[in-house]
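Hi F.,

I've been meaning to write this up properly since the lab meeting, where we talked about keeping a consistent format for the predictions we share between groups. The idea is simple: the sequence comes first, exactly as it goes in, then the structure tokens exactly as they come out, then a line or two of notes. No screenshots and no reformatting. I'm using this chain as the first example so we have something concrete to point to.
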Amino acid sequence: MKSPFLKSYAVVYLLFLFAPIVLLPLFAFNDSKIIAFPLTGFTTNWFQVMADDPNLFKALKNSLFIAITSAALATCLGLFAARASTRFVFPGKGPMMGLIMLPMVLPDIIIGMSLLIVVLAIGVPLSMMTIILGHVLMCVPFSVAILSSAFQSLDRSLEEAAYDLGETPASTFRLIILPLVMPGIISSFLISFTISLDEYIVASFLGGSETVLSVYIYGQFRFPARVPAIMALGTILVAVSVVLLTIAEYFRRRGIAKSGGKDTGGFL
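Output, unedited:
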């Protein structure tokens, strides 16, 4: 039986969750330096102020490099881990997969502090490479979750048929399995890219003197006159994130349909 209370709770929860995101474009196009109602008028000046800041583009360049590299590494590692967990049985499989998925449930601040202690203890200087290390650690569990679903939906008889026709395990993986799970790989890459681009805590712990976009945005809130321009930047980031998640969801559903599986829900 459907409960009116649960329906009302879901509506209130979604409003609480997404109302701040809806406010971003309102104040980004508002002709006032003060973030408050009532709105005073329409302007696109804050987008120009944002575009004229050279520090923003430096931070954006660093973040794009980190996000692309982290997403590629996390997807590769996730591909191997997902393939091993869904296809093979080996000693310690359960604890090993649990350890891989652990960063998904650990608080980001715990991960950031732990990695900072480790890299300082072994004498590694803080840089973009240490940020990439932290982001890969955080993105791999999401990659494994997505790619495990893709591998589980595969028809194993296709792999067996390839072996019967003389293909090696390597050529079967390259010619049969990889094309079938490619939508999941693309989805994993896009999700990992979005997580890395938005992540702040680990980047602030491991970045040293390198400025990334999330740290730059946090620093700008110390200056009230810069807040409307940050609202404009936030509006663009939300739009980009929605587009990437939509594309990732499209490829996820395409991969399930391609393998003949049943869709039981997704990101959107």
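Notes:
The CA atoms of residues 30 and 42 lie 5 Å apart.
The domain at 59-258 is CATH 1.10.3720.10 (MetI-like fold).

If this format works for you, I'll send the rest the same way.

G.
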